[in-house]
Specification:
The chain is of the alpha/beta class. It contains 18 helices and 10 strands.
Amino acid sequence: MRQKPADSSNEHARERKQMKLWSIRDFHLDDLDQLIRVRQDSGISGIHPVYSLAEIIDACANGITVVAVADGSVIGAAACKIQDDRAWVVLLAQAKEWREQGLGSALLAGIESRLASHGIRRISALLPALETRVKALRNNDYRVEEDLHYFEKTIPIQPREIGPLSQLGGRLLPRGLWDALAGMQHEKNLIEQRLILPLAQTELAKSLGVTPPRSVVLFGPPGTGKTTFAKSVASRLAWPFIEVFPSRLAAHPEGLAGALRQVFLDIAKLEHAVVFIDEVEEIASARTGEGSSPLQGVTNELLKIIPAFREQEGRILICATNFIRSLDKAFLRHGRFDYVIPIGPPDRIARKAIWNRYIAPGFSQDINLDALVEASERFSPADIEFAARKASQQALEQVVSRSGVKSRNDDPALCTEAYVEAIKETRPTITEAVVKEFLEDIERIARV
């Protein structure tokens, strides 16, 4: 049987590789399009590169980059960025048909010679864990550091947002506030499922027909942790937290309504935000219908602001109120708020965690927390803090009045009985009548 002649173009390509007809030179700006194509060509499906294209382009402009050229075309590239006395390799790429020909080693050698002329002697490279194409690095005597862990964090604020966020008094809250929120498991589960999950997994939510929430109301007796929940949502999402204080806007030249409008226009410049208005009943109370008033003008403005706010993704408005019955009916209407969520008094687990937070560390093992939890039913977090501090203050006064300042080991003044006595002397914020009204509001108004 006659053998089919070899394709002349393939034969020519093999001859070129055998003769290594490439040259290594410095990167030129005109090479950028070809460099990007080579990077894309060298990628492996399912392996995410460590460095973004923006970081590679920055290294091309401000670091050291070399390209391998054959027949006038870029067939490989290596780029590094310089930080102090170290260079980081951010790109080592070659066209598929030029692999296994020593091109990667040649590109690294080109980089190394240029770094040496700049006095850089330490060169590092980070690769995805699944990357197996490391022959060039090994051939050039790069060693693997076995005992290292790579950590990365993306700061969730764009540089252009820093100014507007600062003017709004917004800030990024510490991570971990959500996990530190002890007890209140029913409320945590509800907020986790209704708010955090759709906002954190937006694309998945949309694919299942779920529209991420844009605005919610938290209601409940005073001191039950509504503000803490709002901050915890911002912490969990890693979004900036912005609290709007209507009382601080009253002196604005355009009045409270104009100031409120401007604040939300400024918020619209941010990519993400958790916006919080506490005691919203101050600016959204039920309108009387007895003529116009400045406060009714503010309520009308807020009713116009919310629909516009809801048109933007990546943000949520959380309003809190102690007196949900006093809110204007139009304010709570469907289409303005996705959920109206009740936040009740802390349960036993939450009270135990709160007590544990405020008891002096040196005495915590000697205190019967269960007795304090039992005695502080209907106490808000603020009530528990007050009672704990009261017990500590009374213990200090007793120690000093008896025989001067003593050490902890010499005096048992701070004990379970002292805390129980402080609880008896503390008037709880949440009365039985308040609890009764709260339960009625859950039946009539809550929307979860």
